[in-house]
Amino acid sequence: AELAAQCVMGLAQLHSRGVAHLDVKPDNILANARGEIKMSDFNLSRILYGGSGERLLVPITGGTKMYFSPERFAPKARAGPHGAMAADVWGLGVTILELFLGRLSLVPGVEKPSAEELKRAICDGKPPSVPEGADASAELRGFLAACLEKEPARRATVAQLLSHPFFAQRDVHASRRALREIIVDTL
Asked: What is residue 5's predicted lDDT score, i.e. its pLDDT?
């Protein structure tokens, strides 16, 4: 919850400045021994507002297909601010699911799916979710469902995620302490 909360706060800062990251994935999340989480690798980021405040329609190409939202698979995918920001939320949801499970397989039984297999799974299959029987809280399941809504207009925004019970109901001090312990144990 703490890692996800810090990522959402980072995305909120970007989005409030009219910037979409467009490559949210575990490799682009950095952690230090103090339990601080930072987002990295802004090579694919796009500014979504022009100098006079007009909304721009930007290409959303490039990135890691495993973390693509369904709309990013469209040929010549372009998005305005909401669509590009919604793609960030999807990438965050897939990332948090992967970190929770310790692995990610969007195509059951396939360790390294092809781009076409990923496209079919993400666009035509059910949204990724915590498997039935896994020890996950209702809050985590709800958070992931909000992030992994297939329709970008119905996907949660970072502002909505900031008040999600997955974060709002956590013991912040205990959550931060647990994150620091996990990070230090892996160093």
From this structure: 95
Token pair listed for 112 = 């390294």
Q: Tell me how far apart the alpha carbons of residues 110 and 134 are, in angstroms, rounded to a whole number.
A: 20
Give the pTM.
Answer: 0.90
Radius of gyration of the chain (CA): 16
171 token code pair: 């013991």
What is the C-alpha to C-alpha distance for residues 39 and 96, in angstroms, rounded to an integer? 14
Residue type, 130: V
What are the residue numbers of the active site? 23
Helix (H, G, I), strand (E, B) or coil at 143: helix
The Cα–Cα gap between 78 and 113 comes to 25
Strands 58-59 and 78-79: antiparallel
Asked if the model's pLDDT at residue 155 lies above 70, the reply is yes
**Three-state secondary structure of 72-90:** HHCCCCEECHHHHHHHHHH
DSSP 3-state of 44: coil
Residues 6 or more apart whose CB falls under 8 angstroms from that of 16 comprise none
Q: Which of 69, 35, 62 is nearest to 177 (CA)?
A: 35
| Lowest mean pLDDT segment, chosen from 42-56, 132-146, 157-171 | 42-56
Residue type, 19: V
Where do runs of H (alpha helix) occur along the chain? Answer: 2-16, 81-101, 115-119, 138-147, 158-162, 165-168, 172-186
